[in-house]
Amino acid sequence: MPAENTPKTILIAEDSSVILNLTRKILEQQKYKILLAKNGGDVLPQLEKNSVDGILMDINIPVKDGMQCTRDIRAHADERIRSLPVIAISGNANDYTMADFQAAGVTAYLPKPLNFDELVRMVRQYVG
């Protein structure tokens, strides 16, 4: 089976079940395979045991926030993990500037409430 037909895998790090389920449904309709992390402590273990193509990272997740998770990803020993696109999602974006996101290593940013057309466009752009 050619590689182009293999679905890309997205890790969604999000603690809100409503947003998680909506986002998952929308991306599954677009033929993405979805993995879930309900808190920041689950993100790196998921990335280390699965082949992931991109990450949707809620900034306000419990245990370890999305900014710290992204910094940990960018500092990871494994180049495959270190170079993953991280799309940050936040309802409190005013707490952060684009410079803060860039300093943490965030690839792109989506505000909440999510615009799902924009979400799909961004995932396609950065993940393929």
From TrEMBL:
In-chain residues carrying the UniProt-annotated modification 4-aspartylphosphate: 58
Alphabetical list of SMART domains matching this protein: REC
Keywords: Phosphoprotein
Name assigned to this protein: Response regulator
Top-level lineage group: Bacteria
Gene Ontology process terms (BP): phosphorelay signal transduction system
A family per Pfam: Response_reg
Source species: Hymenobacter setariae
Domain Response regulatory: 9-127
Protein's UniProt keywords contain Repeat: no
